[in-house]
């Protein structure tokens, strides 16, 4: 961050990578990757076995739009000097 001379925390880089990989695979499957409706339909109904940053394969359930595997994540808060203040693990297994 320019005003403080510190860097943004890099802990969420993997989530951005995962999102881009899901989009990339949808664009590859599309007959016309510039057709937003076609890409949206692929994202909603045909996201299967996309390798993500953890090395796992991500599949999205079309009926819930949620991943079929538990993609828990750490929630972190940093202070102004980029020091970790709070860290907690949250699961995405909504049945728990």
How many helices? The count is: 2
End-to-end CA span = 38 Å
Query: How many domain units?
Result: 1
Whole-angstrom Rg: 17 Å
Largest sheet: 2 strands, antiparallel
Basic shape:
globular
Structural class: alpha+beta
Helix content: 25-40%
Uncertain residue segments: none
SSE pattern: HHEEEEEE
Number of strands: 6
Strand order of the largest sheet: 1-2
Average pLDDT rating: 85
Beta-strand content: 15-25%
Write the SSE topology.
Blueprint (H helix, E strand, L loop, with lengths): L12 H17 L6 H10 L4 E2 L5 E2 L1 E2 L4 E2 L5 E6 L5 E7 L6
Antiparallel strand pairs: 1-2, 3-4, 5-6
Helix pairs in contact: 1-2
Describe it.
- The protein is an alpha+beta fold and 96 residues long.
- It has one domain.
- It contains two helices and six strands.
- It has helices at residues 13-29, 36-45, and strands at residues 50-51, 57-58, 60-61, 66-67, 73-78, 84-90.
- The strands form three sheets. It has a two-stranded antiparallel sheet with strand order 1-2. A two-stranded antiparallel sheet has the order 3-4.
- The longest helix is centred in the N-terminal third of the chain and has 17 residues, at 13-29.
- The mean pLDDT is 85.
